[in-house]
């Protein structure tokens, strides 16, 4: 799914983490990839696919960047429920990071089932 969101420019860089973090995507999409600059949003079925897609985009963008000051720089961000995701940020906020092989989150999930 490809949806266009309002464009976020580097001059108006939003807070990605913390109490005032900005909603970049859709809260009803668990996983997505968001491209800064264009605001393109690509829904993904899993964290693994979102991370792989973002990694491929970032590597490709870096490989083709010519360094010219007029060339736009863009980043691919993994979003979870519309917000920028990193494992460490989720853990610091006390949230499940979503990675199935995360030992600390798996322990919490197991405790919740019992
Ligand atoms: Zn975790």
Protein described:
With 114 residues, this protein is of the alpha+beta class. The protein has one domain (2-113). Helices cover 31% and strands 18% of the residues. The chain has a five-stranded antiparallel β-sheet. Strand 2 (31-35) and strand 3 (40-44) form a beta hairpin. It is elongated, with a radius of gyration of 15 Å. The protein starts with a strand and ends with a helix. Zinc ion is lined by residues 87, 91, 97, 99, 102, 104-105. Zinc ion (ZN) binds next to helix 2 and helix 3.
Determine the strand fraction and express it as a percent band: 15-25%
Low-confidence region ranges: none
Proportion in helices: 25-40%
Main sheet specs: 5 strands, antiparallel
Count of runs of 4 or more consecutive helical residues: 3
DSSP strand count: 5
Bound molecules: zinc ion
**N- to C-terminal distance:** 36 Å
Radius of gyration: 15 Å
The arrangement of helices and strands along the chain is EEEHEEHH
Shape descriptor reads elongated
Strand arrangement in the largest pleated sheet: 1-3-2-4-5
**How many domain modules?**
1
- Mean model confidence by pLDDT: 88
By helix and strand content, what is the structural category?
Answer: alpha+beta
